[in-house]
Amino acid sequence: MKTGQQKMDWARQYMPVLGSIRKEFEETKPLAGVTIGMALHVEAKTAVLVETLAAGGAEVYITGCNPLSTQDDVASALGKVPGVHCYAKRACSNDEYYAAINRVLDARPSITIDDGMDLIHELHTHRQDVLKDVVGGCEETTTGIHRLRSMAAEGALKFPVVAVNDTPMKRHFDNVHGTGESSLTAIMATTNALIAGKVLVVAGFGYCGRGVARKARGMGTRVVVTEVDPRRALEAHMEGFDVMPMDEAAKVGEIFITTTGNTSVVTAQHFPLLRDGAILSNAGHFNVEIDVAWLEEHADAVERRDGIDTYVLAEKKVHVLAQGRLVNLATPKGMGHPIEVMDLSFALQALSALYMVEHGKDLAPGVYDVPNAIDEEVATRKLAALGIAIDALTEEQKTYLSAWDIGT
Questions:
Q1: Is the CATH number of domain 2-170+337-386 3.40.605.10?
Q2: CATH top-level class of 178-330
Q3: Is 283 annotated as a binding residue?
Q4: Does 381 appear as a known binding residue?
Q5: S-adenosyl-L-homocysteine hydrolase NAD binding domain location, by residue (predicted)?
Q6: Which of 27, 179, 267, 336 could form a disulfide with 291 if both were Cys (CB 3.0 to 4.6 A apart)?
Q7: In the β-sheet with 366-369, what is the strand arrangement from edge to edge?
């Protein structure tokens, strides 16, 4: 517990935006009487968010959203915070994982906060007895938003959810800078391999993929991008990256990072094409992008150590990091996104949760954008913390921007 508390103390000092929100929450208690159920990566930055919600008066029940991303010392320390109940455990079985989610749902939360939508999925499929208590929810990541939009399109989603992932203050900082830096850091810390000069293949050029690609290029790698979207592929080309299908990239890549949020990106058809010693990693939420199950079944030998599973295929070694799970969190040395990045994302979560407390009952079931006022507020608080001042529109400029009859 001591080390967990130390990690939380360290993170807190680099999270001024969330700190300013916590100070206001402590004074006004806007979440008094609210029960919040959470399934997130339980590590130090998440703990600071949980402390903030509890400081606002909420009773918080939390578990993990990935079997390998919990830091047990942080989970232990978090469970000692007044008003917080933590059920997360690292390296839990599938049954233990869902048992913990159900313990959160046993608290009958009125607000849900998810990363990947497993909590909401369980709520809608096996715990519909709790649905009537839920006012609204928040979703943190791309994969979860995809699933929620599918539910909403089919009329299956039974309450409103804020798509925290889709707002500019999340995409441009968490997805780009957070995923970019933390994924590469985890790969280097886990393998101790030099990445400068190597060919690094990034699957997907969305916000996460472009963050990885840009950061990797800055560190001296030769970046190859694979895509299925012609517009994103063209964007990657215009930024100077090599673009090719995975069938071709598999032959030249030395390090691979999947960021698509989709299934079956590196599969049985690609494994025989890989170079000896290829390193495979995933930065998408679920462990479906690399077909690890095929390797488990067909590899001649497997060696497991410190977040690396080595498979031998036709005398070639293929190294898979973190069992194909989130490389920046699921490796033993993975610390997740940088603290300052998560300060912004979790500030969005805290304010979006408050928004749902205040407005959720007035919203129909569906997926909603983060209100622009909240997005701008987080940016404004961050600039203030950095001591940066910016201009403001004059009345003349506001009039010009809103008028249609002003010509040349």
A1: no
A2: alpha beta
A3: yes
A4: no
A5: 175-334
A6: 267
A7: 84-86, 59-63, 35-39, 111-114, 136-139, 160-163, 366-369
